[in-house]
Amino acid sequence: MEYMVLCSIGLEKILSNELKKMGYKLKNANNGIVEFYGKEYDYYKLNILLRTAERVMIKIGEFYAETFDELFDGILDIDLKQYLPKNGKIIIDKVRSSKSKLYNKSTIQSIVKKSIIENLKKGYKINTYNEEKGVYKIRVYIKNNKVTLALDTSGDGLHKRGYRKYVSEAPLRETIAAAMILKSGWKRRYPLIDPFCGSGTIPIEGVLYGLNIPPGIYRDFSFNDWYNFNSNLFDGMKKELLKEIDYNKELKIYGYDKAYKMIEIARKNAGNFDINKYITFVKANMESINLDYKEGHIITNPPYGDRLKDKDHAEKIYEQMRYLKRKYPDFKYTIITSHEEFEDFFGSKAKNKKKIINGNHEAYIYYFEGV
């Protein structure tokens, strides 16, 4: 079975490393999609375990089409019975087309849906297709006239772990926070400090990683309602993964925010996964941080112009962040912002700078060592 795992553009390498550690040999990784082969029910563990993935898709068909007739006929030639039931609710969730003769998204959606229904009616030898049980969302990718159909196994995006019931004005997506932690190289024996913690996403993701808590262990997925859902296999897998969580780990994770409201929200979010005791949340501004550590990590999402509606104020905060460098000169810093000149205000040159695209929003992950 061929898989397509989606992530924010720019995080392909970090996601690829996660998959390699799970034993997969990758076929391709670019433009926010990592492709590889796996076993039939691997999407159970992929959805539960991956920290930086947004969706786990199954590739169900691929062919070339330059006309709508070729599109319709190409789908008819796919053996869809191995993926779809005779009574599932089929939704053409998204269409992406580039450098292709077929580009009208609404027409593509309509033709793909009709052809899939005809395919299943013929395959199951039924006269009427009734959409009754289970939701099957399908995405259509067309590039250079090559059509790829992919079945979404996840449902809600995998950034929705389930703990963040309360959010700040511009929350950092959980998968991106996890990517920052993985990119930073943080080890559990070192402190992790977030001086602008907001609703607590970075500290919470730090605990999930530090205790080996699978990010998707407490949520449901689309496949839970599918006709071929193997509850014994799924429940057994979750049971084994829960055994691997190490609640005895001692973590030094701190979240600061100058707004008491945000600290309360962060505490509530951590409480949703019952991990409050692993994080010290403090109402304090950045200059008040006074922890006695010589080595550690500062991983943070400082306010920026888009978020504050005040670019000048954001830049002033970046300059004030030089206090952290003076206080913790031997720390490693992983900072995300949409500001392309952040290094100038921070007063240091990043060891590396990674551009990521999340939807329509562009941002940069800066990594500093020994500032």
TrEMBL record:
It comes from the Bacteria. The keyword NADP does not apply. One of its GO terms (molecular function) is rRNA (guanine-N2-)-methyltransferase activity. Residues 161-362 form the Ribosomal RNA large subunit methyltransferase K/L-like methyltransferase domain. Residues 3-57 form the RlmL ferredoxin-like domain. Gene3D superfamilies: 3.30.2130.30, Vaccinia Virus protein VP39. InterPro entries: DNA_methylase_N6_adenine_CS, RlmKL-like_Mtase, RlmKL-like_Mtase_CS, RlmL_1st, SAM-dependent_MTases_sf, THUMP_dom. It holds the Pfam family THUMP. Keywords: Methyltransferase, Transferase. Residues 66-152 form the THUMP domain. This is Putative N6-adenine-specific DNA methylase.
